[in-house]
């Protein structure tokens, strides 16, 4: 088998499937996704590519389009620009997907052909068993093997308690305890970094994913990750690679989608975590009560009566804001709408500054 493709994670199985498409082009792996454009690594080089008309015309939903990690059949159309067309997406051996809010519920593939999923959760105050459970189910559903990475253990005073809690819900899953600050547990992680094997990293914002990935990649990250390339206007832009091949250490997938996955997932989880507030809010005068200055607010009354704490309402509101922010982010229509508002807001800010 070809050397570079093997480094990219090619297996006999995929090579065999590709034999059916031999005449349609080269074999490659999607390493980054931009708006409607994909970066595909092939045996020879990396090619920017669009999808073929056939893929567009036969797409059932978003999941029919290529995603980072996919093996694809790609053909070069223009020798000079090097741009290509993706004709075929080979069967996914595993995939992390999420539901996307839109006109109808749509499936979007965040990353595919993953062997191991590192579920990162920090061992400090952010530790949340229920969220961890949800991540684990994402992990198992993907078809890859989940591994729990408990991060920031230098900040945890009662690791023993957390260990006991996790062991109850994480049956059959390896648990690693790490600190990127002290370097504890990093050696254990290296055991999972195997040439040709693909690892995806998921976890909430701030749990230390970037710090950890940077540590694993060492010097390589800057070199491997940032590539300069020409956009269509001939201007140089620096873009981000989402699938990174490490020397002798396998492949790491670190897509923005992986980072955002938790929010949409938490949308269902808010109700669980704040059920007492939701129960009380049923007594508010207005069904869309924000529990702020509205009259007849049962939640405010409960705070005054001392039934629930002010802090609890604050964290509830914060989480709700985050979720609606993420939902706006994925809903394309709403997205462009908020963008317009953002531009307006910035414009106003600038005008105010001038005064
Ligand atoms: N005490 C401690 N702090 C850490 C550790 N690892 C990361 N941090 C800190 O935690 C904060 C968040 O770390 P990041 O690596 O940016 O977290 P992230 O998960 O990549 O966050 P997003 O990019 O928002 O998804 C930073 O201030 C880090 O310095 C650790 O092992 N111990
Ligand atoms: Zn209210």
Structure description:
This protein is of the alpha/beta class and 355 residues long. It contains 13 helices and 15 strands. The protein has helices spanning 3-7, 12-18, 53-58, 129-142, 159-169, 186-190, 209-217, 220-225, 256-273, 275-281, 298-305, 310-330, 332-354; strands spanning 26-34, 37-42, 46-51, 71-76, 84-89, 95-100, 106-112, 116-122, 145-151, 174-177, 198-203, 226-230, 236-240, 243-246, 250-253. It has a six-stranded mixed sheet with strand order 10-9-8-11-15-14. A five-stranded mixed beta barrel has the order 1-2-3-5-4. A two-stranded antiparallel ribbon has the order 6-7. α4 (129-142) crosses α9 (256-273). The N and C termini lie far apart (66 Å). The protein binds guanosine-5'-triphosphate and zinc ion (ZN). Residues 281, 284, 289, 291, 294, 297-299 line the site of zinc ion. Zn(2+) binds at residues 284, 289, 291, 297.
**CATH topology value of the largest domain:** Rossmann fold
CATH architecture of the largest domain: 3-Layer(aba) Sandwich
Instruction: Give the N-to-C terminal Cα separation.
Output: 66 Å
Assembly type of the chains comes to single chain
- Average pLDDT works out at 80
CATH class of the largest domain equals Alpha Beta
Q: Strand pairing plus helix content: what structural class?
A: alpha/beta
Pfam family, one: RsgA_GTPase
Cofactor: Zn(2+)
Binding site for Zn(2+): 284, 289, 291, 297
Subunit structure: Monomer. Associates with 30S ribosomal subunit, binds 16S rRNA.
């Amino acid at each position: 088998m070809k050397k570079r493709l093997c480094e990219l994670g090619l297996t006999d199985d995929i090579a065999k499937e590709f034999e059916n498409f031999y005449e349609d082009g080269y074999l490659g792996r999607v390493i980054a996704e931009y708006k409607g454009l994909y970066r595909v690594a092939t045996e020879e080089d990396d090619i920017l590519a669009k999808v073929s008309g056939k893929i567009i015309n036969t797409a059932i939903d978003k999941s029919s389009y290529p995603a980072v990690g996919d093996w694809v059949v790609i053909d070069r159309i223009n020798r000079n620009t090097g741009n290509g067309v993706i004709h075929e997406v080979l069967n996914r051996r595993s995939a992390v997907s999420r539901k996307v809010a839109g006109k109808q519920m749509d499936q979007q593939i965040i990353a595919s052909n993953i062997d191991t999923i590192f579920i990162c959760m920090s061992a400090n105050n952010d530790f949340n068993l229920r969220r961890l459970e949800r991540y684990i189910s994402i992990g198992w559903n993907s078809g890859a093997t989940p591994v729990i990475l408990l991060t920031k253990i230098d900040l945890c005073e009662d690791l023993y308690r957390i260990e006991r809690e996790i062991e109850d819900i994480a049956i059959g899953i390896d648990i690693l305890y790490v600190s990127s600050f002290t370097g504890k547990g990093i050696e254990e992680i290296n055991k999972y970094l195997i040439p040709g094997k693909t690892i995806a990293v998921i976890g909430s914002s701030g749990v230390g994913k970037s710090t950890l990935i940077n540590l694993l990649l060492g010097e390589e990250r800057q070199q491997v990750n940032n590539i300069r390339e020409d956009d269509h206007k001939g201007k140089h832009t620096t873009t981000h690679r989402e699938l990174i091949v490490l020397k002798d250490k396998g492949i790491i997938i670190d897509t923005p989608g992986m980072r955002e996955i938790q929010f949409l997932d938490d949308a269902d989880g808010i109700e669980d975590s704040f059920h007492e507030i939701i129960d009380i809010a049923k007594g508010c005068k207005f069904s869309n009560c924000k529990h702020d200055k509205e009259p007849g607010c049962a939640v405010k009354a409960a705070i005054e009566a001392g039934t629930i704490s002010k802090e609890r309402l604050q964290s509830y509101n914060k989480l709700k804001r985050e979720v609606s922010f993420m939902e706006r982010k994925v809903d394309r229509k709403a997205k462009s709408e908020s963008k317009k508002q953002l531009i307006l807001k910035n414009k106003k800010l600038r005008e105010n500054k001038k005064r």
